From TrEMBL:
Gene Ontology MF term list: methyl indole-3-acetate esterase activity; methyl jasmonate esterase activity; methyl salicylate esterase activity
InterPro entries: AB_hydrolase_1, AB_hydrolase_fold, MES/HNL
AB hydrolase-1 domain residues: 113-351
Keyword Hydrolase in record: yes
Spans traversing the lipid bilayer: none
Protein name from the UniProt record: AB hydrolase-1 domain-containing protein
GO biological process: jasmonic acid metabolic process; salicylic acid metabolic process
Top-level lineage group: Eukaryota
Region listing for Disordered, in residue ranges: 1-37, 72-96
Keywords: Hydrolase
Length: 389
């Protein structure tokens, strides 16, 4: 559900194990009408799948000293290799504005990085990122949003973005007053990050949008995809992906893609073992949170530095759509990953880790206005120039 196998080191292709689970998307077990597993049995199978994935990653040379902290097309299809030469050029795997700097942990604003998954995913999708960040000496935490991962809330019952984001908001609320975190949001998880910035701006050092819905005030996460899907009203009337959890006579409650759609949209460059892990772990996507307009103010949301990571072989949120996002809502810095699909934590984990480390080391600039990047922080100009060469 992201990077060509030819571009991947062998040890990055090791990742996940296949374990059957009744609630997986496109599950053959469900299609046969097999017995439904209890929540306890599902959680056990999910933990076994994740444990096997982590074990294989460790065998490949990774390390993970702590468990994931589980607190609880939309785009048009694009044929592989269709990313334009203007975007790809001869870029390295990751593009930034400077040569890689040595990791300096002593002067970091914070070592704690909170990882927020996207639609259908869960804390489990960050297992490679957690391993890399811990090896660098940082303190990553991955959360399950409501109805995601091993949180057994019925996705059809999630009525608001606040409901969906509650585990993240609860986590921030419990942080000590003098402690800050870096938030990293993937895909539609960007909406939860934006919501958190509005609620607790003083507890967030930086926000990172990983090919994510970085919306403006009054905008819905779904609006990011509207040009390729037409209007939301048309999509809600015609889409075959909709789930009617409360009955056909009631509004739709969720989205569900089949296995081939998921592979084409999310995982066009992802190793097969990580796709297998996703197949047994992804959940239906609650619809209400991505259809809700966000209220974002300069006094809260606007005071936190934002960074956007673009993926240049993304079939879910196209490079053009990503460029429009950063053009209409400029962040403080832009980073680009060559060959990264919509899930670079699977397809380009080392490139993603390198960028997250660079962002963690960026120091605040005295007198820098919200939404304006300093010369040291800005990466967009260099990245764009390299992409056009």
């Amino acid at each position: 559900m992201g990077n060509a196998f030819a571009c991947m080191p062998r040890k990055e292709q090791r990742g996940a194990a296949v374990v059957s689970r009744s609630k997986r998307m496109g599950s053959a077990r469900s299609a046969r009408g097999g017995p439904k597993l209890t929540p306890a049995e599902e959680e056990l199978l999910h933990r076994q799948a994740l444990a096997m994935a982590i074990h294989q990653h460790l065998d490949a040379g990774g390390s993970m000293s702590r468990r994931i902290d589980a607190g609880a097309s939309l785009s048009r299809r694009m044929a592989p290799g269709s990313t334009s030469s203007r975007r790809r050029g001869d870029l390295p795997d990751s593009v930034t504005n400077a040569k890689p700097a040595p990791i300096v942990l002593e002067n970091l604003e914070t070592k704690k990085i909170v990882l927020v998954h996207g639609e259908g995913f869960g804390a489990w999708c960050w297992y490679k990122t957690i391993s890399h960040l811990e090896e660098a000496g940082l303190d990553p935490v991955a959360l399950d949003l409501t109805g995601s991962g091993i949180d057994h809330t019925d996705t059809n019952s999630i009525a608001t973005l606040a409901d969906y984001s509650k585990p993240l908001i609860d986590y921030l609320e419990k942080l000590p007053e003098d402690e800050k975190v870096i938030l990293v949001g993937h895909s539609c998880g960007g909406a939860s990050v934006s919501y958190a910035l509005e609620q607790y701006p003083k507890k967030i050092s930086k926000a990172v949008f990983l090919t994510a819905t970085m919306v403006k005030d009054g905008q819905r996460p779904f609006d990011v995809f509207s040009e390729e899907l037409r209007s939301a009203d048309v999509f809600l009337q015609e889409s075959q992906f909709l789930v009617y959890g409360n009955g056909k006579d009631k509004p739709p409650t969720g989205l569900m893609f089949d296995k081939q759609q998921i592979k084409g949209l999310y995982f066009n460059q992802t190793p097969s073992k990580d796709m297998a892990l996703a197949a047994v772990s992804m959940r239906p996507i609650p619809l209400a949170p991505i259809m809700e307009k966000l209220s974002l103010t300069p006094e809260n949301y606007g005071t936190v530095r934002r960074y956007f990571i673009q993926t240049l072989d993304d079939h879910m949120l196209s490079p053009d759509a990503q460029e429009k996002l950063v053009r209409e809502n400029p962040p403080d810095g832009i980073f680009k990953i060559k060959g990264g699909d919509h899930c670079p934590f699977f397809s380009k984990p080392q490139s993603l880790n390198k960028i997250l480390l660079e962002i963690a080391q960026i120091q605040s600039s005295v007198g820098l206005l919200p939404g304006k990047a300093s010369a040291e922080e800005t990466t967009a100009a260099t990245a764009a120039a390299a992409a056009k060469s």
